[in-house]
Write a structure and sequence with these properties.
427 residues, 8-stranded mixed sheet, 5-stranded parallel sheet, 13 strands, elongated, binds ligand SAJ
Length: 427
């Protein structure tokens, strides 16, 4: 049985590792986090992803998955570690560097090394290859290197791992082909073979496309508010055009990808990456825009000592991840205001901020305004009739177009929506 060593057992590495372990490979999962390794060695997952526990259980029963804090010899090495940005918005390559260095002592003739992390274009050539040189193997004939960026969306990882198409960029054709052989074991989507730097570029521009598109939607939302238009309606009608696909506005762009990757291009080519840069700034400004709107609503409704309930802390719907979430920034900004702040998220089971409560009822009781920041199914399914009497002032600001305006207004709510210049009450 061929052996695979996956370095980095996070949101991408762990699902990928257990997938291979269920498809004919002996897999060693490596992570520097003792906590993650301890939990995994007891058969427990340290991240929430539908299907993950089941795949892990199956692999453990078959004996095809083990974990460790250090790599071992293998036929394929997958690097899936974080590539965050620094406070200066430049790529932080330290995890890529240390993960690459950690496998060098175990490399042998014929091995394949694949980078899955999203990185600034040229990283494999300029950062990884100089480190891999220490293995004293000839690149492209004795050691095969490629980049096959992960493309999965949290919450649907297992479906997308199998069904998404995959780009594989090799330092030469042989590297890409050898990489493909491994992934063929479970990927049903198409494979697209290219060179290594193009593969890096492909991944970064996919996410940059989304960021620029969302910035466009956020700009449309602001313009719509002033023109008496409902941006949600306008965008969805525009999207009926066969060649238009506008994304939707919101309180900001979160996650570790879309708000990060565009900076990789700004860093490399700041003179040229102008729309990309402006989009980042536009999206980063949305939390403050949301806070200002919340405060304006309180003021225009003449509410003194307002109690504001923020609903939704994660960076997107139906997940438990609050890292890089615009909601967290909004909560932070609101906590500095002269209001009584309470926050709630049905998916976040540990309190992450002082204002957080685990009880929805506690969050809304005596609130003067609800601020919905995440489009969780939980919020979509709320019945306003069960809420209205518990609040001191039934006001709601919906930043994700989650609630049905008519239904909530009929129940007695004053409904404000981000980007809705048509339906928002005056004052
Ligand atoms: N958002 C909007 N408006 C929209 C869509 C999203 O404001 O119309 C916001 C979300 O609320 C969220 C943020 O954008 O805060 C990012 O969410 P997302 O669903 O767009 O993306 P991620 O970060 O969960 O996953 C993305 C995916 N990339 C693309 O769809 C091009 C995923 O396929 C990648 O694997 C992932 O980035 C990654 O790891 O790079």
């Amino acid at each position: 049985m061929k052996k695979i060593c996956v370095v980095g057992l996070g949101y991408i590495g762990l699902p990928t590792a257990v997938m291979f372990a269920n498809h004919g490979y002996q897999v060693l999962g490596v992570d520097v986090s003792e906590r993650a390794i301890n939990l995994l060695s007891k058969g427990q997952v340290h991240i929430e992803e539908p299907g993950l526990q089941e795949y892990l259980n199956k692999a453990l029963v078959q004996g095809t998955f083990t974990v460790s804090t250090t790599p071992e010899e293998a036929d394929l090495f997958i690097v899936a570690v974080p590539s965050p940005i620094t406070a200066e918005k430049t790529a932080d390559m330290k995890y890529i560097e240390s993960a690459t260095a950690s496998i060098v002592p175990f490399l042998k003739k014929g091995d394949v090394v694949v980078l899955e992390s999203t990185v600034p274009p040229r990283t494999v050539m300029d950062v990884m290859m100089p480190i891999l040189e220490q293995a004293n193997l000839e690149f492209g004939t004795e050691l095969f290197i490629s980049h096959s960026p992960e493309r999965v969306i949290p919450g649907k990882v297992f479906d997308e791992l199998v069904n998404n198409s995959r780009v594989i960029g090799g330092i030469n054709r042989e590297s890409a082909e050898r990489t493909k052989e491994f992934y063929l074991s479970f990927v049903k989507g198409e494979f697209h073979i290219t060179d290594v730097t193009t593969a890096e570029m492909v991944k970064v521009i996919e996410n940059t496309f989304r960021d620029v598109n969302i910035a466009f939607a956020n700009e449309i939302a602001k313009i719509s508010e002033n023109l008496g238009v409902n941006a949600w309606e306008a965008i969805s009608l525009a999207n009926h055009h066969p060649r238009v696909n506008i994304h939707y506005p919101g309180p900001g762009v979160g996650g570790h990808c879309i708000a990060v990757d565009p900076w990789f291009l700004v860093e490399k080519q700041s003179e040229l990456a102008k729309i990309i840069h402006l989009s980042r700034v536009t999206n980063d400004g949305m939390p403050s825009f949301t806070v200002d709107k919340t405060l304006e609503i309180i003021k225009s409704n003449h509410i003194k000592n307002a109690r504001v309930a923020v609903l939704g802390l994660t960076f997107k719907a139906n997940i438990d991840d609050v890292r890089e979430s615009p909601s967290m920034e909004i909560v932070e900004q609101l906590s500095r205001e002269d209001i009584d702040l309470v926050s709630f998220d049905p998916h976040v089971k540990e309190n992450m901020v002082p204002s957080q409560t685990q009880s929805f009822e506690e969050a809304i009781t005596h609130a003067d305004s609800l601020v919905i920041l995440t489009d969780h199914a939980y919020f979509k399914n709320l019945n306003p009739l069960n809420i209205v009497d518990l609040m001191s002032n039934p006001i709601v600001l919906d930043t994700k177009n989650v609630i049905n305006r008519e239904k909530w207004e009929l129940a007695g709510f004053k409904v404000y929506k981000l980007g809705d210049g048509k339906g928002n009450p005056i004052g």
